[in-house]
Structure formats: structure tokens, C-alpha cells
Amino acid sequence: MSLPFSQACENNKDPILSVLRDAFMYSSRVLEVGSGTGQHAVFLARQLPHLSWQPSDRGDYLAAVKMRVAAEPAKNLKSPVHFDVFDDAPTGDYDAVFTANTCHIMPKPAVAAFFKHFSTDLPAVSQLCIYGPFIVDGSHTSDSNFRFDLSLRSQNPAMGIRHREWITALAAEQGFELAQVHPMPANNQLLEFRR
Fold first, then answer.
1. Rounded CA separation 193/180 (Å)
2. Helix, strand or coil, per DSSP, at residue 141
3. What are the backbone angles phi and psi of residue 58, rounded to the nearest 5°?
């Protein structure tokens, strides 16, 4: 059986790595939320050997992540665990969280639920990096993002590209400050938060 594959993950993994090298320099235990195909997990864990990398996803996506990690193991790459943002976060005393291409797939209440974990079961997290497309100052950052947003909403009205200001406000409620906005390929951004 072939491994699940995302071309977007291949295209953005190196630019994401260039940010995480600095953002997670002093971190030790990372929880990746919404690991998808597992491509980011196996790549980033290998490139950042000082980190213990914990992939996670919801039940219907978890099998794909497990396949990838089993096929491409690394000493610092943990076995993927189930995590639905409406349930308790995995245990592990994490000090950093990474998530890519999740906020526009999750419905808005799920995005809000994701952030609430930082005041309950993820209190030690001081570094948070979120990758994806965002609406900035009420406008899409490109025509392609506008079309992508329409496509998402036509598939499911609960999906859609989120306003960066809303994400930043949710983070601020949990004590995070937006340290830097990193431009990324395909009109995406990586938001680096610290607390």
C-alpha cells in the first residue's frame, strides 16, 4: 500500500524548517497538531534532532500518520497519538506546538477549542507556530487564496481561510504574543507566537 502524499508538504517543508530552527531552538518537546500525511513530522524530526516530536491527528486521519512514521522512523519521532481538539490534549509536558494547514480546515469552534488547551492541559507551551493561508486586514493576500477560500466553503461552509487578526486575538487570550509573521510559499504565512 502506498503512503499518503501531499505535494504541498514537499513544497513547504524546507521553508518551514528554516523558521522552526530558530523558533524551536530552545524547545525540547513538540506536539504537532493535525499531522495529516506525516510528511512534516518525519522530515522535521530528522532535521531537528534536539526535539522530541509528537505527531497527532483525529481518528479518521491517524492511520495515515501512523503509516508514514512506521515507514520512516526516527529516534526522536514518537508514535502518533489521537487528538481531537474538543478532547483533552495528549500528555507529554510539551513546550512547543506546531500545526500546518489546519485552521482553515477546522470549523471556527474547533479553532477556538484548539487555543483553549493552552490554558488547561498545555500550560508549559511557550512557543507556537501556525502555518497556512490567512486573511489580513479583511483581504485575501492573493487571488489564488480567494479562489481557494471559495472552494473550501463550497465543500463545507464551516471551512474557510481565517482572519489573521482573529487567530492573533485567540493566541493573545492565552498569553501569546505574535513575535513574527514569516512569508511562505504559495501565499501562505507562518505565524510565530511566544509567551
1. 7
2. coil
3. -75, 165
pTM for the model stands at 0.97
- At position 133, the amino acid (one-letter code) is P
Q: Which three cell numbers mark 98?
A: 506546531
Helix (H) or strand (E) segment spanning residue 183: strand 177-184
DSSP line for 69-89: HHHS--TTBPPPEE--TTSPP
Please give the torsion angle defined by the CA atoms of residues 86, 92, 95 and 97, in that order, rounded to the nearest 10 degrees. -40
At 102, list the grid cell.
Answer: 489546519
The grid cell for 28 is 525540547
132 Ramachandran zone, left/alpha/beta (phi>0; psi -120 to 50): left
Does residue 185 have a pLDDT over 70?
A: yes
Q: Which three cell numbers mark 85? A: 481538539
DSSP 36: T
**What cell was used for 155?**
465543500
User: Minimal CA–CA distance to 187: which of 130, 111, 137, 135?
Assistant: 135
pLDDT tens digit sequence for 41-53? 999 999 999 999 9
Q: Among positive and negative, which fits the CA dihedral 107, 109, 114, 115?
A: positive
Mark out the alpha helices in the chain (DSSP H runs): 7-23, 39-47, 59-71, 108-116, 143-155, 164-173
